[in-house]
UniProtKB/TrEMBL annotation:
Signal peptide: none annotated. Keywords: Repeat. Gene3D superfamilies: Tetratricopeptide repeat domain. Residues 2-52 form the F-box domain. GO terms for molecular function: RNA binding. It comes from Arachis hypogaea. The lineage of its organism: Eukaryota, Viridiplantae, Streptophyta, Embryophyta, Tracheophyta. One of its GO terms (biological process) is RNA modification. This is F-box domain-containing protein. PPR repeats lie at residues 470-504, 577-611, 678-712. NCBIfam families: F_box_assoc_1, PPR.
Length: 724
């Protein structure tokens, strides 16, 4: 008797599958290996592209924003242009007269265009004004300024992160972040970030209580809006605590919550690409441009929050000239790519052909210095440090000139983050040749650069040569000593700072306390000096009102296993962040009080802080440490509840946990379910088999490991040798 599946023609099944969205296609690929092979088949891909083409509309418009010098005038008059392009190949060009936000025309940017409404903004000093403009009705609204309170000891910056339509509440919203840094050098990461959202319906801003990761800075070429969700690029600390993991941040405008999606292949690629986000066929699409081979990869996200759902559509062959992704609005059939000379090219995702020389007037534009500085700043804040240096090289070659005292601190930050002393000393040479070595901001940036590259003596040499110093300068030098674990020198510098009449700011104390916490030396003198700082902070009334400072102080006590003092600070804090909770819980696990850490976890669930996988890492490792496997099983239930079971570090710990209970079947089940196994996954499973008296299984796994791209490390080789 024929089954139902036998009655369905194979061609009909293929036609149905070829019309599925990427998300569904990704799920079906896990059903059976033959289906996965089908989806990789070239004929099926061609069918899928044809369906993609049939859904694509050619009645699209493209928003292009650019700047140029007006050659019609006698002098150097620099203008901004916004063009609306339409037509099958964008041959129809209409110049839009975008209203100004300030009394004097400044340099504006177009953030996005949603439902025909253009969101743009201008910067003037520390102020950022945002406007919404409907070109069809010529209605224009200037959004009131956000909440931008000044914080003592910090410099303030505002970053606009997205604009979109909340279809649930019928409202247009804008997201921005106000972040505070240790000075205008941009060498240090933001210490404090305040997220805000604007509602057009109520015409007001409100603060968002979000535990966003550390570096959600964006570049204007790296945002996308789709179906009530704003997407941008960010980075967060990877599970090993050393690297930064590239992530897509997706903010839901109706629920006002966010999710992150890891970009796995970017972590493994040493050639850090320039990235652009666009919307293709109702999917968030990533364009990655790699500098070394000048190739471009195009990938589609199937499901937000699921890193395995990225689907790489294709890779474009190297171009004859260098092209970079350039965000210019929502597109379906065409993706536009441009280089620094404003040359444009288009890519047809259906025919997979490059069309060069689009009929738009885009000759090489002469830019004034402040525009070059703006490009350098955006690239640096977005983490494209190699691109920052390339822009500087282009600036020098095109203009024959050099930067100013605003340019070089940004370049030094790029060198510091690249850990490149070669480029850093080259920039230092330019500074000396141009005579900027006596500028306060430049000198402070030099100290920060040498500090981050661990050249403490060079940092001190620059610091000692400063005729005038600011609190930020002192903080940069103290940071250099703290990073290098020269805590005696850091405390000595703090005393000198006081003696010379400089009042330490909150960042000063955070740097000192963080140095004590990170140091490998459990020195009694460090603990005593940390206690004296605590006493000083109590007198200044700063301990419990500032979250970052309280976390640093609590971390210092946790480092020295002084849990009673750490708990006092935790209980008296006015506001607790997720770092506050993980710090105190990690402290209890460190001293073996896992039950108390679990009690804190139960309290944490009733707070609005949010819970991430770091909490479960702490709890599970603590349970394994003390051998409380029953409690570990309870924690595992919460891991599943909060959807953290697919985190690699959690999976590895669960393998270790089951192996310790001699439940190798459960350990193997988790191991087999890991789609992309890391060397740590293999090590955990092999060690589990070895320690549970299953030498043959351990050797079999080791043979499988050798056939992969991973290279076995010392501990795993020693484990295998002991079995022979």
């Amino acid at each position: 008797m024929a089954t139902h599946s036998d009655q369905i023609p194979k061609d009909f099944v293929l036609e149905i599958l070829a019309k599925l969205p990427v998300k569904s296609l990704k799920r079906f690929s896990c059903v059976h290996k033959s289906w996965l092979n089908l989806f990789e088949n070239s004929n099926f891909k061609s069918m899928y592209y044809e369906n993609l083409k049939s859904k694509t509309t050619h009645s699209l418009s493209l928003l292009l924003w650019r700047y140029f010098d007006d050659e019609r005038s006698d002098g150097d008059v620099y203008e901004n242009d916004v063009h609306l392009l339409s037509g099958e190949r964008y041959e129809n060009i209409v110049t839009l007269d975008l209203p100004s936000l300030f009394e004097e025309n400044g340099f504006y940017r177009v953030l996005d265009c949603v439902n025909g409404i253009i969101c743009h903004y201008e910067e003037e000093g520390l102020d950022v004004k945002i406007g919404l403009w409907n070109p069809k009705t010529d209605q224009h609204k200037i959004i009131p300024l956000g909440i931008t309170d000044d914080e003592p000891g910090f410099d303030r910056q505002v970053s606009i992160h997205g604009f979109g339509y909340d279809n649930v509440n019928d409202d247009y919203k804008v997201i921005q972040c106000v972040y505070y840094i240790h000075g205008q050098t941009f060498v240090e990461e933001p210490v404090l970030t305040i997220w805000q959202i604007y509602s057009l319906k109520c015409n007001c801003w409100k603060k968002l209580h979000l535990e966003m990761t550390k570096k959600e800075h964006i570049y204007n070429a790296s945002i996308a809006y789709l179906n009530g969700v704003c997407h941008w690029w960010g980075s967060e600390h990877a599970t090993n605590g050393l690297e930064e993991e590239q992530v897509l941040v997706s903010f839901n405008l109706s629920t006002e919550t966010f999710q992150t999606t890891s970009i796995v292949w970017l972590q493994k690629n040493v050639d850090r690409p320039i990235r652009s986000l666009v919307v293709l066929n109702k999917s968030v699409t990533l364009i990655s441009s790699f500098a070394k081979n000048n190739c471009i990869e195009i990938s589609i996200l199937g499901e937000i929050g699921v890193k395995e759902s990225w689907v790489k559509l294709f890779t474009l062959e190297p171009f004859s000239s260098k092209f970079s992704p350039m965000r210019m609005g929502h597109k379906c059939d065409l993706i536009f790519i441009g280089n620094h000379n404003s040359e444009l090219a288009s890519f047809d995702v259906i025919t997979r052909k490059i069309i060069h020389n689009i009929n738009i007037k885009t000759s090489i534009f002469k830019k004034p210095l402040y525009l070059w500085n703006l490009m350098i700043r955006d690239s640096t804040n977005n983490g494209f440090y190699i691109e920052t240096l390339n822009i500087y090289t282009s600036m020098v070659s095109h203009t024959g000139g050099h930067g100013n005292t605003f340019t070089y601190p940004l370049l030094l930050k790029a060198c510091a983050n690249l850990d490149s002393m070669i480029h850093g000393t080259m920039i230092h040479g330019h500074i000396l040749r141009l005579g900027f070595q006596d500028d306060l901001f430049v000198q402070t940036a030099l100290v920060g650069m040498y500090a981050k590259c661990t050249y403490v003596e060079c940092a001190r040499h620059v610091f000692d040569g400063m005729a005038h110093r600011s609190v930020v300068s002192w903080n940069s030098m103290i940071s250099a000593y703290s990073r290098g674990f020269f805590m005696d020198a850091a405390f000595s510098l703090l005393k000198d700072m006081w003696v010379l009449g400089f009042e330490p700011s909150s960042p000063t104390f955070v740097l000192i306390l963080s140095g004590c916490s990170d140091s490998d030396l459990d020195s009694f003198s460090f603990w005593w000096q940390g206690m004296s700082i605590h006493y000083c902070l109590i007198k200044l009334g700063l301990v419990y009102s500032q979250v970052t400072l309280a976390n640093a102080l609590m971390g210092m006590y946790v480092h020295f296993s002084q849990m009673e003092e750490a708990r006092k600070i935790f209980d008296l804090m006015d506001e607790k962040s997720i770092i506050s909770w993980t710090t105190i819980m990690g402290g209890y696990v460190k001293v073996g009080h896992v039950a108390e850490a679990y009690n804190l976890f139960n309290q944490m669930q009733h707070q609005s802080t949010g819970i991430d996988f770091i909490v479960f890492l702490i709890l599970i490792s603590g349970c394994i440490q003390v051998g409380d496997l029953l409690l570990a099983s309870s924690v595992q239930a919460f891991v599943l509840k909060y959807g953290c079971d697919k985190e690699e570090s959690i999976e590895n710990l669960l393998i270790t946990k089951y192996a310790k209970c001699s439940d190798l079947a459960s350990a193997r089940r988790i191991f087999d379910l890991i789609i992309k196994k890391s060397i740590f996954s293999w090590t955990s499973m092999i060690a589990g088999d070895a320690h549970s008296d299953h030498p043959l299984e351990a050797l079999h796994l080791f043979r499988r490991l050798v056939r992969t791209d991973f290279r076995p490390d010392g501990p795993i080789v020693a484990t295998v040798i002991s079995l022979c």
